[in-house]
Structures are given as structure tokens and as C-alpha cells.
Amino acid sequence: MKKFTFLVAALCATMMASAATATFTPAAWGNAGVSSSPYQEISKTVGDVTLKIDSGFCNGSQIRAYTNAKVMFTSENNITKIEFTTQAGDKGTDKYSASALSGTGYTAEKAATSGVWIGSAKSVTLTTSAQCRMTQIIVTTDGTGSDAGTVDTLSVSVAEALTTINALADNGVAADYYILSGVVSNLDLNTTDYGNASFTLTDASGSILVWRAYNIDNKKFTDAAQLANGDSVKVLGQLQKYVKDATTTPELVKGYLVDRKATGEGGEEGGEEGGEEGGDAIVISPLEYVQALYFGELSAGGNWWGIELWPTYEDDYTYVYFDIVNESATAIAGTYDLDDYSGVWFSANDSVVVESGELTISCVAEGEYTIVAQFVGNNGKTYSVNTTVAVLAYDYDTEEEFTLTDEASTAIRTVEIDNTVYARDGRIYAEEGARIYSLTGLDVTRMNGNLEGIYIVKNGNKVAKVAVAK
Prior knowledge:
4% of the residues lie in helices and 50% in strands.
């Protein structure tokens, strides 16, 4: 996570209270270190607190301290409290949990998901008896130092932003400022009256509505060329749980762009050129066909799957492949760490090898899965995949097709097709009370009149799929 300093008082202010906190999260830390021996030292500074793990790894979803590691905190102020949130203990043991940590002043129940250190020191060192997987660390200091209480923006995924929003009260706004990165769609850009932009922001983990954001440096948009669908952007703002007429819309509000890469410069539509020459955040899209190959007898290390994602068959395509270890011969749902047996093949003439990353496969209906992945390639670029498609499964040894046994999440099965819905000039016309959703599931009803693309309209148990052109 980069630390941004702003002149705006609300974004860079010293707290009046005597205490200050620094929060460490895996998403803000990002990928650091390696996941296999020899392990590496990783270090992160938030506000006036530095956390250093001499044998650690971060994959964006967990901060790991390996067995016999030193977890060290330093500050120019007195540290008075350190609160840990971790994974639960593996089979009731210390492994992965808060009780894997120990040191004077530290307490945690065996296999617990939380632990706390209490004391007063400018330096605190804890040690691990087993691997500890931390999901959040909050450090409290006495707040007397020159950097105490500085607001540090947190770079998080859309999914993590949605989790924060879900915890808010109706119409509540989170106090912190966050940076979200993703690709722009459903853009409503005003360059005359208000100079702001509303759009859907999508990354590998999901989508969120960005509501009336300004351009870079918090300036108004004055030209239609300043932002376009397909651009890759970073947006700073606050998170809001907007509720109206019993409908909740997660939003990023009071925001502005801090970075933009136009389409073709590493954005969604960059293709092969974007993959090799563009920015550091690349969305691989579209992907319309997935096959899962089960390899039951080829690896002494256990059974495994090859997950292959393809677009429609054309001369110019991007093909993505993931290798995952799963002993089940009929199920693929789960979350997996990615390694260098996974990668991307651009237009059949170039490739990127995965160095680190994570893949999540979720069953949403019989035979239909959501495939979400974010990974770093050997070219240093970050890639994202987010698609919901039918998955065909094959046994590699017998070449037989079979049906996957993952249980689908709750889905609406009894629906009535609504043939009264139509669209004209960027607006969808439907019955009163109908809600409009993007294909990624984002409620975009508030943007009706400035829509373009394909949408799902739902009113009670009636649904319709409609294409909208401006």
C-alpha cells in the first residue's frame, strides 16, 4: 500500500485525542515475501508504526508469520496495545491461530482467532510456535509523535470494501478513506454542470458503484476524453451504505481519481498489448468457456485439477489456466493459492507465468460457477479474472465428461419472464419499483438514463434481460 499525503484537512489530520491507532490489513500490504522456504523478511509501515516479520509472507488475504518467526513492532511513540485477528486453529491446535504467538504481555486462548498485547514500549517483539495467519492487526500508541494519528488511506479490493460497507448502519459512511482499483463501465460523465462521474468499478473480486467522483487532483471533469469505459483507474473516497426504498446500494462517495490508464494502456480492452506494455492492473476479459480437467494418477503429490478458461474461439484470444490441488474427483469449489504452474497465454504467441496469487471458485447454480482470481505475473504486472460461466468437467485419464457435485448457492429458480421491459436512449422503461442490475450483480437503478450495455431488470419474481444503447 502506498501512503498518500493530502493537503485537504479531512484527509490528513492529527487526531486531538491522546491515542492513535495503526491498522495493518493483508489487502493494504499486498503481495510480499514468498510462500515457501527459504522464507523472507517482510516489513510494512502504517502511520508511525512499523511491523517487521523476519520469516513471513503476505498474499493479500492473510499476513503469515512462519514457525519460529519474530513479529516485531516499533514506533517513535509508546505502543500500548496490539490487537490481533487471525484464522482459527487448525483442528483445535495453535497452528494458524492467535495462540501461535507468544511474548511478555500477550494473551490468547488456545486456537482462538484473537489475541492482545498490553504494555508500554517503543518496541515489541512476539515469537511464533507455529505458523500464524493474521487477517488484521491494530496497534495503539500514546499518540505523542510527529506522525501520530495521520490518516493513512487503505488500498483494498472491492470485496473487502463491500464487507466494510455491510457492517455500516443504513446510510452510514465509513470514517476512513479507501483506494479502490478496477475497470470503469456504465460511465455517466458530466463535463458541464457538475464536472463529476458516476460509474461501475470492477476488479477481480466484484463491483461497486462510484458515485459522483471528480478527476485527478480532485478537479472537475471538463472533457469527455478524460474518462472512458474500459479505463483502469484508482479512486480515493469514503464507503457508504446507501439505502432508499428498502434497497441497499454499496457506494464509494466523496471521491476522486488518483490514477488513470486509458483503454489499451493496460485496461480491460488492452488485449495482448495491454498484457505486455500496459499498466500494472490488467483485467482479463471476456472469458466465456471453462473446462475442469481432473488428473487422478499423474502426481505423486496428490490428485489435482487443471482449470482452463477460454474466450469464444477466434484468431485473437487470451487463454488462462490454473492448476489447483483438490483431492475430490468431482468437486472444485474452494480457495486456492496459485503458483508457477498457472499462467496466461496471450494470442497463442506469448505467455505470463504466475508468481503468486489466489483463486476462488464458487458454485452459483447447477453446473455454473464464479471464477475469481488475482495474481502477479513474472513480468511484475497484476492480473484479474472475474467471470461466471458454465463449467464442463472431464476425467483426464478416462476422457469421460461428468457432472460436478459442488452444491450451488441459493438461486431463483421460479421466475416469470417480463416481456414489457424496453430501452431507448440510455434509459430502461419497466414497471414501477423495478430494479436494474449489471451482469456482475451491481444495482445500477440510480444510473438509469445513462446506461449502455446489457442489464437484468427485476420486479418481484419477474425478470427481463435488455440491451441498452445511447
